Amino acid sequence: MIRTRFAPSPTGVLHIGSVRTALFCWLYARHANGQFILRIEDTDKERSTQDNVNAILDSLDWLGLNADEDPVFQSDRFDRYHEIADQWLESGKAYRCYCTKEELDAMRNSQKQKGEKMRYNGHCRELSHGHNDKNYVLRFKNPRTGSVVVNDEIKGRVEFKNEELDDLIIVRSDGSPTYNYTVVVDDVDMKISHVIRGDDHLNNTPRQINMFDALGASVPSFSHIPMTLGEDGSKLSKRHGAMDIREYREQGYIPEALLNFMVRLGWSHGDKEEFSISEMITLFDIKDINQSASTFSPDKLIWLNQQHMMKAPIDSLVPLLEYQMERLGINGAHGPSINKVIKVYRERAETFEEMAKSCRYCFEDFDEIDEKAAKKHLRPIVLEPLQEVYDRFNALTEWCLDEIDACIDETVSKFDINMGKLGQPLRVAVTGGSSSPSIGLTVELIGRDRVLERLQKAIDVVKKRSGSN
Ligand code: GLU
Ligand code: ZN
Known about the structure:
mainly alpha; three-stranded parallel beta sheet; binds glutamic acid; binds zinc ion
């Protein structure tokens, strides 16, 4: 049974990089009909917060990266960590180290002076006599000779000499267990078959493998994914868009598009760019994860969001636009149906935030027409055509696109002007600005009552201008 896990520390919220790790773990489990587990690594009580735990759960939920079991919290498992530590102490796989801070500092200083790598020298490893001091840490007795080979699925074979690895602290003097140790106990207890994580953990892996051996457990498969960099080649930061993943929801991105974006950060399938979630699941494989770092391109995210917006079933997009409208305080109760709005606007908007902003005039009246647009387009010369189109709209028995277009076309022919000469003033009149979908569609969406009322107002503006001229 293939079992992967995502193991965030709630010392912060989730960013693109960590969510990508979660996605790869989830996809691989789904691809292989396995299971995906969430483990909250909250042993650092000082820096772990409930808000961050909530942020992690909320983000994964929004993206649909569902786990197959209830999340495991490391803070619930201290007894288990102490149980194993005691066993190791008993069997000589771990030992108490009584070195004081001063002694460790002195050790490091002398190593530094000799130009040696700084590490614990094993001073307490073979202490035979008992010690009364209660102030000790537990260290893992790492093998001294030989080497550990990590057969990484992405990095290939990486060999580490045991003499390079010192005896790691597994339980601190306050009784709290450390990362490298808890991870191994958990990965064994949770029967994790595949560890997929950032390559910043590669150097921890030989230490962890030695502890898997100490537990007599089989070693999982390891895949260390290269990191994602900003377009300028530097470490991904807020400036590049590496913000709390929930910000993307706020900005109106589609979860599927975001997942598509993230799967392409370091994984590819030929030169295909667009993937639905089910395609990702079918096609994803660890062996296709790239060996080199990937680049975060905000433009590509926008592009993918648009592609997904264009292809998704409209009904599935309704909640996304509703969410943005609510966020922006647009009351959807009086106006066209949300489905219809999406159908008309999705070709023009890159995100749902943008869509909500640009369809506001379908739901709300505006007090002022954009001054620049009015000056440019509501000139005396358009008075008659506007009045004509008003009368024609007013006489329509059916408010539908064909009829509306016919009114506009007939007016254009009657005055022998080109389409833009009527279309643009009409747009300014009914939307208050100079950009909207095709004028017929816009008029249809806004609806008869509002169109007539706004058109009348615009005609009054033009009349006033004519009079003062
Ligand atoms: N808690 C670790 C982190 O957030 C997880 C490391 C692992 O996956 O083993 O980096
Ligand atoms: Zn010591």
